[in-house]
Specification:
It is found in: Cell membrane. The chain has 16 helices and no strands. It folds into 2 domains: 15-172, UbiA prenyltransferase (Tetracycline Repressor, domain 2, Orthogonal Bundle), CATH 1.10.357.140; 174-313. 76% of the residues lie in helices and 0% in strands. It starts with a helix and ends in an 8-residue tail after the last helix. By secondary structure, the protein is mainly alpha-helical.
């Protein structure tokens, strides 16, 4: 094979494809954004034109993806160090950081303007604030400055149901903030569980996660405390306008399992093998993914059934 053929083959392998640009938008995170925003939209007490609803969710999704691209642009240096993230498009050499920045900014502008036009200006402004909070407040500042990074920064991931509600109503209410609080309180134990079995990544990257700055024992205690507070909030929301008997049953079962998992983590045997302890932490982390999805799924079911007199109280 000639040198020219080898160089052409290498270039083709290094070129970014559609999948690389899609990965830049953090599709797994985007799926959570889309789902919780949809629940906020459907749970709102006003009818929404299906086309308007579709456009709202589409532009909220684009805004979430734009935040992911800007996050990867700024965090490219630490992404190269962490095992969990070194395969992302920028550290893998598929996409240049400047490309990610331009794409993120362009999509941010598109999402904000189009959401405001498709629904109402308040929704567009709130989406703009959410993108700013995630990129500037969390990514550029809190993430590398304080072990409370994920506690405060978690607000960014909790805003989508509020945006969905505002897109439908053009106004605020207590119910979307209950959904916000559910996600906000869920975020720390979810990410701290991940940090427990991925601690070396944060050590190597110099990110001051609680596991790095205060140690594993303190982190496990924090997980238990936050899980207890989350359980009170989640079950209590079952008696609000977004709750109902279906939600309440789901919440009681899930929180019993979640509290059991947090208790097991807090009581883990320091003399046990790392593999045994990591298994407990991974199990809790996986349960945390199911936890949020099923809670919002139950809110969605209650909202869908309510017009037929079957959902809610």
């Amino acid at each position: 094979m000639s040198d020219a053929s080898i160089n052409a083959s290498t270039l083709r392998e290094d070129e970014a494809g559609f999948g690389d640009y899609f990965a830049l938008l953090k599709p797994r995170v985007m799926s959570l954004v889309v789902f919780t925003a949809l629940v906020g939209l459907v749970a709102a007490p006003v009818p929404v034109n299906p086309m308007v609803g579709f456009c709202a969710i589409l532009f909220i999704a684009i805004g979430g993806g734009a935040s992911g691209a800007l996050n990867m642009w700024w965090d490219a240096d630490i992404d190269r160090v962490m095992r969990r993230t070194r395969g992302r498009p920028i550290p893998a050499g598929k996409i240049e950081p400047g490309e990610a920045m331009v794409l993120g900014l362009a999509l941010s502008g598109l999402a904000v303007v189009m959401l405001g036009l498709a629904t109402n200006p308040f929704a567009g402004l709130f989406l703009a604030f959410t993108i700013f909070f995630y990129v500037v407040i969390y990514t550029m500042w809190l993430k590398r400055a304080t072990p409370q990074n994920i506690v405060i920064g978690g607000a960014a991931g909790a805003f989508p149901p509020v945006i969905g509600w505002i897109a439908a109503t053009g106004d605020m209410a207590i119910e979307p903030w209950l959904m916000f609080a559910l996600t906000f309180m869920w975020t720390p134990p979810h990410f701290w569980a991940l940090a427990l079995f991925m601690r070396s990544d944060y050590d190597d990257a110099g990110v001051p996660m609680l596991t790095v700055t205060h140690g594993r024992r303190v982190t496990r205690t924090h997980i238990l405390v936050y899980t207890g507070l989350l359980a009170v909030l989640a079950v209590g929301a079952g008696f609000s306008d977004i709750g109902g008997p279906i939600y309440l049953v789901v919440s009681v079962v899930l929180n019993a399992l979640f509290l059991r998992g947090a208790w097991r983590i807090s009581r883990r045997d320091e003399d046990a093998s790392e593999s045994d302890n990591f298994a407990v932490e991974r199990s809790f982390f996986r349960l945390s993914l199911l936890y949020l999805f099923l809670h919002f799924g139950a809110i969605l079911i209650e909202a869908v059934l309510k017009p037929f007199g079957l959902g809610g109280w």
